[in-house]
Each structure stands twice: as structure tokens, then as C-alpha cells.
Amino acid sequence: MTMLGTAMRPMFAVTPTDVPVLTTGGGPTTERLSRVVFVVTECCELALTTRHEDTLTARLDAYPEELRGFAYEGAGVGLAALDQLLRWKRRTRRFVDGPAADYLFAVYLGAGMGLARLRLNPESFRRRLGDPVMSWVVLDGYGFHEGFFAHRRHVQERATPPWLSGYARRAFDHGLGRAVWFATGADVQRIQATVDGFPPERRGDLWAGVGLACGYTGGVGEAGVRAIRSLSGAHLPRLAEGVVLAARARHQVGNPGDEVETACRVICGTSSREAAEIAAAALAGLPTDDIEPAYEIWRQRIRSPFMEGPDDQH
User: Over the chain, what is the mean pLDDT?
Assistant: First the structure.
């Protein structure tokens, strides 16, 4: 396993030329976003080259608490890649069933990025996870990778991978929205202009992704959060949905932080703890008939308290 992982490391390396937007700016926002990208990369390499699960967990937990979720996301990149190349392995699912249970969302986001890096269709991997609700997060990670590392095709040209269908396309757009936050250097005016360039039926899911990035990664301060709230317009419930998801992910590991607290207060009108409780309560009694993905029903319930009228933008 270690030899294979070592051989795969060059495939997942990220250099400054891969992230031109983040390296041509400056100041605290670009520094923070760049740091997040490289933590994910470092921890992907750890997952590829660390044989034992307990050793990997200890190394991830050594990262500063505020960045630890990104460390687990990076581990998800590497674990999913190994699972795909050694298809009898189930390291990703075993990891989230064990020491990474509280970081499931982050690990699944990373898994989607790993599949995109290998140019693999994520749908079969998602089904292999055997998780009818949260496995859709893999598509979010896939969309983030394509929106960030294949920015021209998927953001500027607004292409969607032709092998994705149905709800997978919407989950892909959640990740694409997060990628817009990073690729614009969290410039709120550019974020709005970019999302507005997409067809109206895609914008709601993109704003939800923007909200998740705003709450979880942040980097714009309170003034920037207020600006993005205003610019979201009729899509404010979708923006709030993403922020609530960020709050749940942070509180699940006992690490809320100032960024998500500000986002929840300004965008949702709640504390981050209250927002996390909204997400947790919305998981109760999800239907399992698969007529509509349970994951989407969960998200609908999350945004419902923030809607003043019908959400006709998905």
C-alpha cells in the first residue's frame, strides 16, 4: 500500500501554477485560502503513504484545530484514490465508520476530489459507500475539484460532466459554488457576477455552495459576509443553507471558530450552535423510498426556516 501510494503522489501534487488566482493576490484572504489548499494536499499525501489508520489519524489530529477539517478532507482524497485502484479495499468507509466519524462530511468531500483527480465517474464509488444520505457529498467534492482545477471549462464555460445525471448534477453544483469562493479569492462582487452568469435553474445550488465556503472557510471578515448576504438576493435561503451545513460540520467536531460564528449571525440570524442544531434536527425521520434523495430532503428542511416564499430556484 505504501509503495503504491508513494507512486501516486505526483498525481495529486498541487503547485502554485495550479492556483493562479490565489497566488497573484495578497493579504490575509488569499493567504488563508492558499493555506487551506495546501493543507488538503499535504494530507492527501499522508493518506497515500501511511499504512496504518491509527497513525494517519494521529497525524491529522496534529494539525491546528481550526484547519483539522481540511486535513481530514485531504485524507479523503487519498483514501478514495486507493479504494478505486484497489477495488477490494474499503478504506474510506472504514475510516468514517471509525476514527473519522465526526469528520464524515470532510472525508466525503475529499473523496470526490480524489475521484475527479483520477478522472473517474464518482457515481459508482458513491453507491459503494452504502450511505444513502451523506454519500451525495462525494459529488460536492467532485464539483469543487472541477470548478477549481478545471475552472475555464466548468465555471467560465459552465459545462457539466456529461456522465452525471439527475440529482448528481445538482450536488455537483454545490461543490462548484464552493470552488467559486476559492477561485475568486473570496471577492464577493466577483462571486455574484460569476454565479449570475449561470442559467437561473443552477444558481440556487451554487449559492448553497458559496454559503458553505463562507461559513466553513471564510476569510472575508464581517463586512464581506454582510456584502455576500446582500448580493445573494432571492437566493438568501440557499446561502443560509450552506452556512448551516458549515455550522454542523464545525460543531460536530467541537470546533466552531469565529468565521462560522460570524456567518451564522449575519446570514442566518442565529448562533452557530443554533444553526448546527437545525441541521441535526433535520436529519430525523428522513424517508428511505428514494423517490427523492434523502440528502436533498435534508437540505430542503435546513433552508425552510429561512424562506419567506416558495423556493422556485431549487
Answer: 89
Type of residue found at 95: F
CA dihedral 259, 261, 265, 268 (to 10 degrees): 90
Per-residue confidence (pLDDT) for residue 20, from 0 to 100: 44
Q: What angle do CA 287, 138, 297 make, to 5 degrees?
A: 25
| Cβ 19 vs Cβ 147: under 8 Å | no
The string of pLDDT tens digits covering residues 203-256 is: 999 999 999 999 999 989 999 999 999 999 999 999 999 999 999 999 999 989
245-269 core/surface letters (b: 16 or more CB in 10 A; e: else): bbbbbbbbbebbbebbbbbbbbbbe
* Polymer length in residues for the chain: 314
- Residue 264: pLDDT band (50, 70, 90) is very high
Q: What is the pLDDT of residues 11-40, one digit of tens each?
A: 555 555 555 455 445 566 777 888 888 899
d(C-alpha 1, C-alpha 7), whole Å: 10
91 CB contacts (<8 Å, ≥6 apart)? 53, 79, 82, 83
What is the distance between the terminal CA atoms of the chain, rounded to a whole angstrom?
43
CB of 208 within 8 A of CB of 236?
A: no
Distance CA 149, CA 144 (A): 8
| DSSP string covering 50-97 | ---HHHHHHHHHTS-GGGHHHHHHHHHHHHHHHHHHSTT--HHHHHHH
Ranges of beta strands (E only) in the chain are: none
